[in-house]
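sanity check this chain:
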Amino acid sequence: EDRPEADCVFFGCPFDASSTYRMGARFGPAAVRRASQMTSFNYAPWIDRDFSKMRVYDAGDAAATPFDILTAMNQVYLYAKRLWNSSKTVIGIGGDHALTWCLLRAARDFNNGQPVALVHLDSHLDTGDEYHGNKLSHGTALRRAMEDGCVDIERSTHIGIHGSMGSADLMKEDQEKGWLTITLDDFVEQGPLEVAKVVKARIGDAPTIISFDVDVLEPGECPGIGFPEPGGMRCRELFAFLRALKGIDVIGGEVTEFTPEYDSNEVTAHACAQGAYEIMCLALDNVDDPKE
């Protein structure tokens, strides 16, 4: 059925078969939808924009078989690609971090086959070649996306990295490939506004995807996390950072690794819903209101 092009489309990715610790992220999209009923999608006072005339839709969930990771990744990729055929912005709600590979492949196609800049908010780099001997996991999603030519590494940044690592090799390898890594210690020392200035300067005018892995947050504040790392970012810091990115060319994003079973009073669900909304605001702030 023909319809006008959407300004923004959200979709769910109820998939967690590539998770390696807590399971249950497949129930994330439903929980975020429930929490999002408390979010007004009309007016964002921090940028003084009214989105009430924008065409914003929920496209439902991508079919993602739990029995085969590669098949599921292709299913989600094709679903996201189809959504970008009729929308300016696509935002995925996971599900585990394997969603990143799917979304970045579709974003590359939307960008005429060219890689996109990535703002990667996470406790972990997710650029390893293998995790527990498996090349398809939530810990290797960015490596697969890099191999597929989806990521403009020279314009991309890891933000909020903290916690232990298997070795220093991965950090060194990322640096040699051109990644900028801003650890959580650096983020706290510099502050969200200064870090945003660095990230914006690096991105320039490149089409950009924002990846928000909920495990970048402090699990004492947001406990519904599949792979918690104590000592994380506060929600207020996250939103201040995102709002300071105003002006970059955001074409899509994602929220991943939310595991509702471990949430308390839906606080993490609301943080995820707000995070997705913040990404939408960044994207639509560059879009003119539809003509009457």
User: Anything to note?
Assistant: The mean pLDDT is 92.
